[in-house]
Amino acid sequence: MTRKTVLVTAFEPFGGESLNPSEKVLCSLPDAAYGLSVRKLLLPVEFRRSLALAAAAFEAIRPDALVMLGQAGGRSAVTPETTARNEMNARIPDNAGFRPEHLPVVEGGPETCRSTLPLEAILRETACRGIPCELSGDAGTYVCNALFYGMLHRLQGAVPAGFIHLPYIREQGREPFLELETLLQAADAVLHCLAPAV
After folding, report:
1. For the chain, how many helices (H) and strands (E)?
2. Cα–Cα distance between 156 and 149 in angstroms, integer?
3. Among candidates 81, 87, 86, which has minimal Cα distance to 137?
4. Using an 8 Å Cβ cutoff, are 148 and 105 in contact?
5. Domain residue spans in the chain?
6. In angstroms, rounded to a whole number, what is the distance separating the alpha carbons of residues 13 and 187?
7. Nearest C-alpha neighbor of 144 from the set 56, 54, 39, 77
8. pTM for this structure?
9. Roughly how many angstroms between the first and final C-alpha of the chain, as a whole number?
10. pLDDT, tens digit, for every residue of 119-170?
């Protein structure tokens, strides 16, 4: 029997930070878990390139699920996003110096797209493990949201796909934060919930 594959993406540091918790989690993920093969992709914090690279990787790998990770400073819980918006609006430039103001991610696309990850199962599993986790209906309008929207629009529900924001970790010296080990447990919980869904 062919093993199912999940593609997990994360982002490099941005906004003056020296690290990104999503990158730390990505680097620590196993190559296989719960019968799933785990493929990993680190993306630049750039509106245009991140989506292009993720789409190219998806076409090359043809995974059975897509989990996108990113940093959301100021949050005290792991937050799976429910909804992506067709808007790019940046308070600070991306790592390529691009700073869009109220531009669509996809010209003529719908206003929103919905995550197709098993969100309720993820909430239950993280709760069982004592991990702070809550759904978010606002992925912002920065690069994370653009990737989230762009990939959901492209996939049209073909596979479970969604975005999960992670808080700061202790090493960043910012608050609120969660320990890296807690974020790794959250990622493991997501893989656990995806296994029966693909």
Report:
1. 5, 10
2. 11
3. 81
4. no
5. 4-197
6. 19
7. 54
8. 0.97
9. 14
10. 999 999 999 999 999 999 999 999 999 999 999 999 999 999 999 999 999 9
Residue 38, token pair as written in the block: 């785990």
Superfamily covering domain 4-197: Peptidase C15, pyroglutamyl peptidase I-like (3.40.630.20)
Residues 94, 46 contacting (CB under 8 angstroms): yes
Which of 140, 164, 183 is CA-nearest to residue 11?
A: 164
Side-chain-side CA neighbours of 163 within 13 Å: the count stands at 30
- Whether the bond between 176 and the residue before it is cis, its omega within 30 degrees of 0, is yes
Residue type, 120: E
Q: Name the residues annotated as catalytic.
A: 81, 144, 165
- DSSP label at residue 17: -
pLDDT by residue (tens digit) across 19-55? Answer: 999 999 999 999 999 999 999 999 999 999 999 999 9
